[in-house]
């Protein structure tokens, strides 16, 4: 019952500072059309951009959260907006899946955007899946689920296999992982690395992380640490951190000297020294990820409320 859109979806293109999306498909043709909303509702994209900027200004961490929302949506049965669906007595959605609990957030922002866009367009023409996609773009510029989403404990081999199962390459893996240049991680996601991987973890970073993340499980689980030194800026600092053993998550540090796959080491070095190349390759990888399993034509629906499917 994963719902996405009759008017499907988008394309990501490089923007001067980061990433830019375009969109969609006509309900009748089911073909992707990057100019769909130019005619269907010219106010849609500016409205989304304005509300994302407001949300990120109010809480800078929200930019990373909205980007993560798109990633988690796409890696489970394609980019269909199904991650937004609430559970019902007759339907179990993705929100309470282990990788999403206390990790994926920003649903209230999506709710506000959906209501505002419906009001501006004077009809229900913008799909929830498209909103999630455009929100991911604007967040960057402004600043089955248990088994499908790569975990922060994954080895390089498991990360590569997970991405390959979605038709994504090692370069896509390294480029998309750069999304961790924005935002924070919970202690529970890096505790094992902090206390059991001292040989590959920079000592000064370890000391600062221990201050917010005690060894004992259940103590400080939800306390946060930035994933790179510039958590509110989209840049190559994430990769520079990996070169120095300052990857906060096990899965991040695996990209550099994590298993003998020299191509990932080379890419980390390259992106650490070339912000523009990182932004370009991130945008292109987002295009490929965002094209996973699109629902076009009559395959899905444009939900009135992104939290529940439409009922006749």
From TrEMBL:
One of its GO terms (cellular component) is extracellular region. Disulfide bonds join 41-121, 74-79, 128-306, 187-213. Residues 1-30 form the signal peptide. GO terms for molecular function: heme binding; lactoperoxidase activity; metal ion binding. Substrate binds at residue 150. The active site is at residue 72. Ca(2+) 2 binds at residues 181, 228, 235. CDD domains: secretory_peroxidase. Ca(2+) 1 binds at residues 73, 76, 78, 80, 82, 94. The record marks 68 as: Transition state stabilizer. Heme b binds at residue 180. Removal of H(2)O(2), oxidation of toxic reductants, biosynthesis and degradation of lignin, suberization, auxin catabolism, response to environmental stresses such as wounding, pathogen attack and oxidative stress. This is Peroxidase.
């Amino acid at each position: 019952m994963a719902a996405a859109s009759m008017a499907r979806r988008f394309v990501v293109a490089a923007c001067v500072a980061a990433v830019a999306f375009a969109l969609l498909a006509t309900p009748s043709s089911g073909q992707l059309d990057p100019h769909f909303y130019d005619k269907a509702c010219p106010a849609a994209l500016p409205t989304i951009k304005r509300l994302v900027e407001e949300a990120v200004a109010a809480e800078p961490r929200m930019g990373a959260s909205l980007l993560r929302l798109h990633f988690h949506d796409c890696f489970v049965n394609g980019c269909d907006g199904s991650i937004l669906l609430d559970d019902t007595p007759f339907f179990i959605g993705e929100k309470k899946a282990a990788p999403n609990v206390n990790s994926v957030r920003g649903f209230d922002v999506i709710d506000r955007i959906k209501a505002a866009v419906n009001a501006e367009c004077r009809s229900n023409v913008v799909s929830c899946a498209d909103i999630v996609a455009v929100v991911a773009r604007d967040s960057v510029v402004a600043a089955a689920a248990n088994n499908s989403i790569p975990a922060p404990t994954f080895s390089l081999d498991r990360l590569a296999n997970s991405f390959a199962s979605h038709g994504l390459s090692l370069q896509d893996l390294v480029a998309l992982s750069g999304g961790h240049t924005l935002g924070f991680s919970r202690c529970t996601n890096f505790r094992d690395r902090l206390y059991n991987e001292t040989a590959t973890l920079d000592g000064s970073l370890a000391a600062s992380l221990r201050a917010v993340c005690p060894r004992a499980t259940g103590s400080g689980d939800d306390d946060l640490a930035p994933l790179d030194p510039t958590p509110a800026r989209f840049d190559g600092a994430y990769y520079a951190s990996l070169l120095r053993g300052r990857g906060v998550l096990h899965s991040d540090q695996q990209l550099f000297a994590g298993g003998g796959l020299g191509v990932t080491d080379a890419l980390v070095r390259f992106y650490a020294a070339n912000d523009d190349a990182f932004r370009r390759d991130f945008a292109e990888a987002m295009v490929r990820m965002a094209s996973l399993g699109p629902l076009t034509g009559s395959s899905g629906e444009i939900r009135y409320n992104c939290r529940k499917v439409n009922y006749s």
